[in-house]
Amino acid sequence: MILLDTREEDHPIPLERAVEAFKKLRGEEVIHMIHRREPIPLFEIITNNKGRYKSTMDETGIWHILITRSDTVDLESIDV
Amino acid sequence: MYSGLSLDQAPPISVVTRFFLTVPIFGLALCGLILVNPQAVLTPNHPFSLAVIHLFMLGVITMSMIGALFQMQSVLGGRPIPSAQGNAFLIHLFLLIGIASLSSAFILNSPPLFIVASLFLGAGILHSANLILPLLFGGGIHDTLRGMRLALISLFITAVLGIIMASEYANASFSGFHEAIRTSHYSLGLVGWIGTLIIAVAFQVIEMFYVTVAYSAWCKRNAFRIIAAALLLKIIWLFGALPLAWMFDLVIAALLIGFATTTANRLNMRKRRVSDVSIWFWFFGIGLLVVSILFYGVFEVSGYPPALSASLIAFALFALSVILGMIGKIVPFLVWFHLNSAGYMDAPIMSNIIPQTRAKYLFALTVLTAFLALEGVILPDAFALAAITGGGMFALLLFNLMNALRLYRHTLTHGKRFEQM
Q: What is the pLDDT of residues B27-49, one digit of tens each?
């Protein structure tokens, strides 16, 4: 799991870091992005480039986004 | 798995950039008019003055705000604008013809041009409101959407009142309500459309872009209700020729001062002190907003006409400053987003699309133009100088936009696709 904590970073750094990390994903690697907002534009980039994601908000209002390029990794089974 | 928000909502890049690219063209045109006759532009109700005011409020401010709305609606509204490309083309074309006709109509005192302007501006604005407003109702709702609703309704009524006045100018026949219509027209345009949309955008982007403390829920919930109520009552008071209509200006002024100080505090207390020119534009803009309100207060108390001119100039430059800061954020984002979304993974990073150095030059020219324009209320020569620095500012904006699009096209042609990496 590649941890990407962007909660304290100004726009557009979180999006740029997430896309950079997505580019480097190999095999069954998964990025766990933690952000203060749901990064909607990122999702379009991921899905348009054959990636998958799972986006959930925890009870404190923080968003956890799991990103992978693997077809086999079950994102639903990963707890964050 | 997904959050309920549909994907593939972003409109094509040309939908937004066609509006933004026109902004500096109208900006250069209005600077040219000021340079030709600065004294006439400073004379209230002079045809040159009315032409320049409408070139600025429609050609620069409204053009950029409608362009931004096409992008904002898809991201914040969660429901994309249908046939965005075709509708953007049509609305942009109507606005283009309408704004050029209206400004020419004032300068040439031409009744047929007032009719052409009414038709095209009316069609462009009414179609924009008709297209976007229904999307803001019925779905999920948050404070920024409430602000966008009020802004679009205000723009709609501003346009209707504008059409009535244009027909009065075309027929050279003015009704007994002309003054009430005129005051309602500019109150709704300045506060209801421009001020409200900027506040709505601030509620969303100040916290999101600059990692600040959020605006208070009370403030976000009630700001637009207060503006709507104050504007509605002011219009009733104006048409009823009732006394003490200035009370509603006082309420709006208090709210705008509250917004300005709250925003400045939020930006001052931001968690990360990253240098970003867009923050300077926000600070400068809200400073000008306060200056505008102070000059308006001076005018209300003293009746001194140059104070009203200074108030209007400061308000226009407040909006321009915020818009320039936001264009500097939106355009690099759009270029980066569309390239990455299309699989061009060696797309330039956002800070290289409009480099900070050029953004700083743009800010310096904005500051210089604002100081000279405000000084110009007393000294027309300074106003002419403001037209020159303003021309430089709009020329640099045009260069920045064209260069960003050149980078976009260059990457589309020569960039490496994701599957090649």
A: 999 999 999 999 999 998 899 99
Q: What is the ipTM of this complex?
A: 0.89
With CA atoms as reference, the chain B residue closest to A24 would be B421
Could you tell me the fold of the domain covering A2-72? Answer: Translation Initiation Factor IF3 (3.30.110)
- Which tokens belong to B335? 């270029």
A70, with CB counted inside 10 A (0-12, 13-18, 19+), is: middle
CB B151 within 8 A of CB B73: no
* Nearest chain A CA: its distance from B342 CA (Å): 7
The two three-digit tokens of residue B348, written as one number:
């330039």
From the CA atom positions of chain A, what is the Rg in Å?
Answer: 12
- Cα separation of B20 and A59, whole Å? 40
Q: Give the predicted TM-score (pTM) of the model.
A: 0.91
Tokens of A14: 């979180």
Q: What's the CA gap between B106 and B61, in Å, rounded?
A: 19
Non-local (6+) Cβ contacts of B149 within 8 A are B133, B136, B137
Q: How far is B263 from chain A (nearest CA, A)?
A: 17
